[in-house]
């Protein structure tokens, strides 16, 4: 069990890159957590523990988003992840007010693992659109995820999980991914392929005609603020 109050909060901005020109077209903000001695803690461990306390989860999510917006690269599009459980109920409006105050913001909704989560994410999607926020569907095709047809039809961005890079060696895998990208193109959505680590994978992204890519191939362009703050929960 982590002592959450002993952690510090920061973030990392990872770029979205055009696979053809290698120009940066915005950043995704990702939460980062550290022990007092500066040792990094895996974010999934922190959020798994936070899910046991909805109030603490909402407080940390709001603190993280406030930090990410404050330190974001200037004059760049910004994507932030929102956990539907952290924006549920009484906490929704506070988070919506914060997010809608930032220009050029896109909110990423995580692909869901069960029907109740899918319904919650769909409800949150409509609230984000009412607040005039762009919405991206994240983790499409991840092993733990399920496809939400309603969300796929209505979001502004489709973000394809790195797991597709393992599937494209199979004829059915490349056929399905190509069809989903074609769907995105025909319906006016931007398609993003995650997990690009090699030049060969970047070339595959070009052949698939995705709009943007992200991954550790572009690690020299990652941005980490020097600032951090004590976690409040």
Automatic annotation (TrEMBL):
SUPFAM superfamilies: EAL domain-like. GO terms for molecular function: cyclic-guanylate-specific phosphodiesterase activity. It comes from the Bacteria. One of its GO terms (cellular component) is plasma membrane. Residues 1-233 form the EAL domain. SMART domains: EAL. It holds the Pfam family EAL. InterPro entries: Cyclic-di-GMP_PDE-like (IPR050706), EAL_dom (IPR001633), EAL_sf (IPR035919). This is Signalling protein with EAL domain.
């Amino acid at each position: 069990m982590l002592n959450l109050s002993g952690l510090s909060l920061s973030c990392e901005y990872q770029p979205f890159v055009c696979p053809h020109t290698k120009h940066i077209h915005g950043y995704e903000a990702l939460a980062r957590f550290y022990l007092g001695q500066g040792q990094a803690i895996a974010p999934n461990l922190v959020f798994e523990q936070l899910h046991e306390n909805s109030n603490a989860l909402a407080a940390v999510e709001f603190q993280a988003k406030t930090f990410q917006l404050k330190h974001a690269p200037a004059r760049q599009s910004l994507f932030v992840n929102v956990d539907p459980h952290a924006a549920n109920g009484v906490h929704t409006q506070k988070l919506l007010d914060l997010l809608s105050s930032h220009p050029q913001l896109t909110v990423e909704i995580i692909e869901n693992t069960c029907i109740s989560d899918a319904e919650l994410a769909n409800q949150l999607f409509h609230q984000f659109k009412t607040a005039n926020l762009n919405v991206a569907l994240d983790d499409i095709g991840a092993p733990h995820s399920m496809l939400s047809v309603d969300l796929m039809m209505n979001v502004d961005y489709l973000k394809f999980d790195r797991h597709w890079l393992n599937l494209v060696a199979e004829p059915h895998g490349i056929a399905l991914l190509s069809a989903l990208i074609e769907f995105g193109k025909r319906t006016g959505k931007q398609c993003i392929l995650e997990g690009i680590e090699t030049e060969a994978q970047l070339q595959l992204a070009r052949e698939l005609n995705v709009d943007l890519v992200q991954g550790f191939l572009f690690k020299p362009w990652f941005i980490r603020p020097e600032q951090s703050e004590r976690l409040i929960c």
